[in-house]
Design a protein that fits this description.
Shape of chain A: globular
Distance between the termini of chain A: 52 Å
Helix content of chain B: 40-55%
Number of helices of chain B: 4
Structural class of chain A: alpha+beta
Order of helices and strands of chain A: HHEEEEEEEEEEHEHHHEEHEEEEHH
Distance between the termini of chain B: 25 Å
Radius of gyration of chain A: 23 Å
CATH topology of the largest domain in chain A: Naphthalene 1,2-dioxygenase Alpha Subunit, Chain A, domain 1
Largest sheet of chain B: none
Strand order of the largest sheet of chain A: 1-10-9-4-3-2-5
Structural class of chain B: mainly alpha
Radius of gyration of chain B: 14 Å
Number of domains of chain A: 2
CATH superfamily of the largest domain in chain A: Naphthalene 1,2-dioxygenase Alpha Subunit, Chain A, domain 1
Strand content of chain B: under 5%
CATH class of the largest domain in chain A: Alpha Beta
Number of domains of chain B: 1
CATH architecture of the largest domain in chain A: Alpha-Beta Complex
Oligomer: heterodimer
Shape of chain B: globular
Chain lengths: ~425, ~110
């Protein structure tokens, strides 16, 4: 039985003309396909590497390892206040410029200039080579030609993006498209209380996006999170989204309310009743200067009264979840091989005023972690079985429409990269 | 005599070792504990959390004192161990095997 209306075509999948046949997961178990994805996707699209709050003052910097794009970048706020990114490579002998203790780990800090650990070549915050040790020993080195290699950088609503393709001509805002335009004005800058989690996951990066782009699994995989009678009720009810939408390579799902607050208190676990909080966030939303009705138009796009959260997938690897009780969760998936990736989940809240609010947020964060652990481990099991190639066709339901779209999009990027558009010969 | 926790929360004193800064460390203690240990802490701490709402609501985060900080961290530990006690029946998340997800950025308090 349908609880929410579907498009006239009868299903979301047919509405988006994606195809309803079983799908192959060959794109998630092939080292060769992953190598193509690195060049076709991760070296060519805008990637979100952080937020402006991570660069609070002139000279603030952080590094980001982009293994999939075969790059490490250093993102820095210059003396002019601008945010820039550079390849994290010293121009002298190729040493990694900014790192601490472990060359492969990310770092952050504040500085006046970047000095290479190896021979003390120094670069200013705008990337210009400022000092060469024993310069007279070199053979007419023109310092103006040996600055750090810049990486295209832009900021959308406080989210810092880089694009490693020096020939890219698509501005960030155009790339992010209709959903981003419709989210603009959401007060992300007020959500400065940050909890970030990181996990090494034994699966292809797309499989974890799959897991978070459908909630068909929630009543089953996460049944143990509910009180027993509620779990049975939810399982019988199943899951249906309020709506799905697709815009080029990006997609979104709008979901109904869940449990913030629950209809009946008996539905939720004792600690949730005591703290009036849970996975969906604290039941009392903090003031962000906008009511639910005043949220930007891409948030709760159907303007449903029972709306609970929206989940946006910005291709390739950035997910933005906006929850009704005025908090935000982001997911990033950073591939490290065809069957491994690093997952980052970051919760953003309005800073708590008192210890009780701090505990309400802690419960939301810890709930996210408990769910995430279940999801993450399931993925390793999925990856292992896909790699046996015992079965190679899988039926996906209408609530899994965004998965079809994600995999089709990745394949399109790879095809376009392999076969650049050439002029059609005259017929 | 100085106490670990503020007035009204002295029943928590035997569980002062749960006043731990950081979710990562709290989770580590949870998975190193037996269910009996988690249940014993829960049985004392949970009623205090229910009774303590009004108190906690007037503890400001800007100028939080040492006793209140420890109380907050002990209740953060209660949040962490509520999952085994109320849902899982075991310290670890079921079927989480080798999976680990770790806090890398957290509020100072």
């Amino acid at each position: 039985m349908a609880h929410f209306p579907k498009p006239a075509e009868g299903s979301w999948t047919e509405h988006f003309k994606i195809g309803t046949e079983p799908v192959s997961y060959a794109d998630s178990i092939s080292p060769e396909f992953y190598e193509l994805e690195r060049d076709a996707i991760f070296r060519r699209t805008w990637l979100n590497v952080g937020r402006v709050e991570q660069l609070p003052r002139k000279g603030s910097y952080f590094t980001k390892e982009l293994d999939a794009a075969r790059a490490s970048v250093v993102v820095v706020r210059g003396t002019d206040g601008e945010v820039r990114a550079f390849h994290n490579v010293c121009r002298h002998r190729g040493n990694k410029l900014v790192w601490d203790d472990y060359p492969r780990e990310e770092t952050k800090g504040t500085c006046r200039a970047f000095t290479c650990k190896y021979h003390a070549w120094r670069y200013d915050l705008e990337g210009k080579l400022a000092f060469v040790q024993q310069e007279s020993e070199f053979f007419d080195v023109d310092k103006s030609k040996y600055g750090l290699l810049p990486v295209q950088t832009d900021v959308w609503e406080g989210f810092v993006f880089v694009n490693l393709d020096p020939d890219n001509t698509t501005p960030l805002r155009d790339y992010l498209g209709r959903f981003a335009h419709g989210i603009e004005g959401y007060p992300f800058h007020k959500l400065t209380q940050v909890h970030r989690y990181r996990a090494e996951i034994g699966s292809n990066w797309k499989l974890f996006i799959d897991a978070f782009a459908e909630f068909y699994h929630a009543p089953i995989l996460h049944a143990g999170q509910y009180v027993a009678e509620e779990a049975a009720k939810i399982k019988k009810y199943g899951y249906e989204a309020l709506s799905y939408d697709i815009d080029g390579p990006h997609s979104m799902v709008s979901s109904w309310g869940g449990i913030a607050p629950p209809k009946e208190r008996a539905m939720v676990k004792p600690v949730e009743r005591a703290l009036r909080s849970g996975l969906f966030g604290p039941w009392e939303a903090p003031d962000i200067g906008l009511t639910t009705e005043q949220l930007p138009p891409a948030v709760n796009p159907t303007r449903s009264k029972v709306w609970g959260m929206d989940s946006f997938v910005f291709f390739p690897n950035f997910m933005l979840l906006v929850w009704r009780p005025n908090w935000v969760l982001t997911y990033h998936y950073w591939p490290t091989s065809y069957n491994t990736h690093i997952f980052e989940g970051t919760c953003y809240f309005v800073p708590p005023k008192n210890a009780f609010q701090r505990l309400q947020q802690e419960l939301a964060v810890v709930s996210f972690k408990e769910y995430g652990l279940q999801d993450g481990n399931t993925l390793e099991a999925t990856q292992a079985m896909l790699e046996t190639r015992t079965v190679d066709e899988f039926p996906l339901c209408d609530q899994e429409v965004l998965l079809r779209h994600l995999h089709a999009t990745a394949q399109q990027f790879v095809r376009a990269y392999e076969q650049p558009v050439t002029p059609t010969p005259a017929s | 005599m100085t106490t670990v926790f503020p007035d009204g929360f002295h029943e928590l004193e035997p569980f002062a070792d749960w006043a731990i800064q950081g979710e990562r460390a709290r989770y580590a203690k949870r998975v190193d504990s037996t269910m009996e240990e988690l249940q014993a802490f829960y049985d004392v701490a949970f009623p205090l959390l229910q009774k303590g709402t009004t108190y906690l609501e007037q503890v400001g985060m800007e100028d939080i004192g040492e006793q209140d900080k420890r109380l907050l961290w002990a209740f953060c530990s209660l949040v962490t161990i509520a999952f085994p006690v109320e849902a899982w029946g075991q310290p670890r998340v079921p079927d989480s095997g080798p999976a680990g997800i770790h806090a890398v950025v957290e509020p100072a308090v």
